Amino acid sequence: MTISPRPPSIPAYLGLEPKKLFIGGEWVAPLSAKTFPSVNPSTGAIIANLADAGADDVDRAVRAARQALEGPWAAFKPHQRQNVLLRLAELLEEHYAELSLLATHDMGTPVSRSARQKHRIVETLRYNAGWATKIYGDTIENSAPGEFFSYTLKEPIGVVGAITPWNGPLVSPLEKIGPALAAGCTIILKPSEHASIPALRLAEIMEALDLPPGVFNVITGAGEAGGALAAHLDVDKISFTGSHVTGQKIVEASAGNMKQLAMELGGKSPDIVFADADFERAVPGAAMGVLGNTGQMCMAGSRLFVHDSIYDDFVAAVAEFASGLKVGSGLDLSTDLGPVVSERQLDRVLGYVRSGQAEGANMVLEGGRLDSGELAHGFFISPTVFSEVADEMTIAREEIFGPVISALRFHDTDEVIRRANASEFGLGAGVWTTNVSTAHQMARALRSGSVWVNCYAVGDASVPFGGYKLSGYGKEKGIEGLNEYLTTKTVWIRTD
C-alpha cells in the first residue's frame, strides 16, 4: 500500500494571537507583556507569538506549585495519581496526531518519525502510572544501643522545575511529567524557546484531568525564565535536558538552596564497527545513529570508529545510504530528514563542516545547505560524511548536533577502547559485532551511560537512561528515573 505524501493541514492551534502562560490552572499573560516569535524551520515563517516569561512569572508559577503540593495534591491517594496518568495516556492517544503535527511545524520533526514514537510516548505514561501505587519504604533492623524501631518513608521531592530541549518537544516533557506526577510532585515545565507550542497545547489538553490548580504549570521564554527557575529558592529539584554548557550554568544557579538536579546533557558518542559486523544491519544502523532527527540527538553516534580491514568499504556504504535519504519538509510523509531547528543551528552545523575540511578530513559525501524550490526559505542541510578523521579534529571532539558523520579508523580492541573513552562526554556508545565475547568486553569497558550492541539509540520506559562525565548525572526512565522525584526520610522510634 502506497501512502500519498500530501502534507496535512495547518493545525488550528497555530496563529499570531499571543499565547499565554499556564500558571495555577489559569492562562495568564506575562507580567511584562513581552512576546517572542516561533518560526517554522521548514518555511522560515512565524507561526505563533509566545509569552516571554520573566522572573516574576516564574515566581508566580512556583508559588502555585507549592500551594498545590502542600494542599489538595498532597491528599491524592496513590491510585488517584495512577488514574491521572492513565487518563493522560488516553488523552495523548486521542490528540497525538495534532500534537505531533504541531511539533513538525514548530521544530521540523518529520511526521513519519513522530508516528513511530507514539507507542513509546504513550507507554511511558502508562509505565509510570504503574509505579504510583508501588512506592514504599523499608523497615530496617538496626544495631543502635537500646530498643529502637527504624524505617524509611519515600516522599515526593517537592516542586520540580522541568527544563526541556527542542529536539524532543513531546518525548522529553512527558518523560519528566510521568514520574513526577507518579511520585506526587508538582511541576513547572519550561520548554525550549525553539519548540514550546506542543507543550502549551498539552497543557490545554491536561485541563480535562481536573488536577488541582498548580500541579502542572507551563512557562515559555528563553534564558531569563530558565535561569530564574534554576535559581528559585522554593524549587526543590531541576530536571534538565540540554547542552552541557547550559547545564553547567544551572548547576551554578542551583547552589542557593542546594536543590537536587538531574542533568541529561550532550554527548560525542562512539559507534564502533568491528570487522565481523553484519554489514546489512550495521550500515543503516550506524548511519541513522547519527542522521536520525537530522542529527539533533544528544546520544548521536557521531564518532564512527570502523576497523581498518573494512574501513573503506563500510564508509562508502554509509555514504551511499546517506545519499539516498530524502531531505525535505517534515509535513511530507516521504521525508527522512527534516530541517534543523533554526538558522542559527544551520550556521553552526555548516561551520563544523567547514572546520572538517580545513583540518584535513576527507569529505566522502558533501553536505551543504539546500535552498532551492520548496526548501528555499527553510533551514535544510544534506548529510555529510567525513573519512580519515583524526581524534584531535574539532568534528571528532565537539558535539555538532547536525547530520555530520565523522569516520575514524582503528586497528585493535584495546586501542579503540582507549580512544572511545578519551572524550569529556559519556552518554551513549554503540558496538557492532557478531562475537558475543567482544560485545560483553566492550559493554564493560566503555565509559558510557548506555551501550547498544548491534543496534543504536533503542529506548524503553522501563530502562534507565543517563550519562557519565560531562553528559550529566541522574537517570530518566525505569525505577531509577522515578527515584529522581522521591526523597527518603528516616524515622526512629524508641520502644523500650
Structural overview:
By secondary structure, this protein is α/β, with parallel strands linked by helices. It has two domains: 21-265 and 471-491, Aldehyde Dehydrogenase, Chain A, domain 1; 270-460, 3-Layer(aba) Sandwich (Aldehyde Dehydrogenase, Chain A, domain 2). It contains 14 helices and 24 strands. It has helices spanning 55-70, 78-107, 111-131, 171-183, 197-206, 223-231, 244-253, 279-291, 311-323, 343-358, 394-397, 413-421, 436-445, 478-483; strands spanning 21-23, 26-28, 35-39, 46-51, 139-140, 148-156, 159-163, 186-190, 216-218, 237-241, 260-264, 270-273, 303-307, 362-365, 369-370, 380-381, 384-387, 404-410, 425-426, 428-432, 450-453, 468-469, 472-473, 486-494. A seven-stranded mixed sheet has the order 14-17-18-13-12-20-21, with helices on both faces. Strands 9-8-7-10-11-23 form a six-stranded mixed sheet, sandwiched between helices. Strands 5-6-24 form a three-stranded antiparallel sheet, with no helix packed on it. Helix 2 (78-107) runs antiparallel to helix 5. The longest helix has 30 residues, at 78-107.
Key traits:
Aldehyde Dehydrogenase, Chain A, domain 2, 6-stranded mixed sheet, 14 helices, 7-stranded mixed sheet, disordered N terminus, globular, alpha/beta, 496 residues, Aldehyde Dehydrogenase, Chain A, domain 1, 2 domains
